[in-house]
Amino acid sequence: MKNREKELKAFERLLDVMDELREKCPWDRKQTMESLRPQTIEETYELSDAILHNDEHNVAKELGDLLLHVVFYAKIGSERGTFDIAQVMDLLCEKLIFRHPHVFGETAVSGAEQVVQNWEQLKMKEKDGNKRILSGVPESLPPLLKAYRMQDKARAVGFDWEERGQVWDKVKEELAEFHAELDQTLSDPTDAQARAKAEGEFGDVLFSIVNAGRLYDLNPDTALEKTCAKFRRRFTYLEEHTIRQGRDLKDMTLAQMDEIWDEAKALEKEGKL
To answer: From CA 86, how far away is CA 75, in angstroms rounded?
Structure first.
């Protein structure tokens, strides 16, 4: 109970600080929801980075930054007379209680999978809820994550492969179609229609790969982010290694670069990179 009192006191302090900032700081006073939006997106990515690096100190810091934005938006809403932080929290609590009848009601579930299925069905029943299955996927989501969420929502209502191994036939099919269109594009690079078709088929390949990852509980955004970090480490090692030798990457052969790249991979396996 003492811990809950401490948490409530800390939240009350944040609200007081926000009131002071909004009243006395010229920069905070001029902010709008529109001006805060890009900063909120940036803060979300900074939190993502901290999580990916297992940096819990920075996770706490970035969560604070995001919480500030939540309180900031609510403060602006209260000034406009449209909503306040109490309404934000009440709406959230009501939504969580409604979507968890197996916790706050008498609905029985067999496991997490059924919870997800019930969640999507309950969202459709809410007064201001999504009227279509995919309407809950924001259009502004990055495409890789958007594909994953769309597939996941379709799965929740039964639109999915009966066996996850079946997805590989679809991946192979999409790859074959992409290769066919790509061959047509290469035969005539000026053919805009062929290029558009190749681009469409490439999108289908990516979509099918994301689907395969989902079926094996692999998040494509996280997986690709880790691969990008791995490439950055290895390429940085390659670049710094050549600089120390007084060489220029542009003057090296691919075989020479591959040799140093393999060194980076070996160091990585030993946990030294």
So the answer is: 11
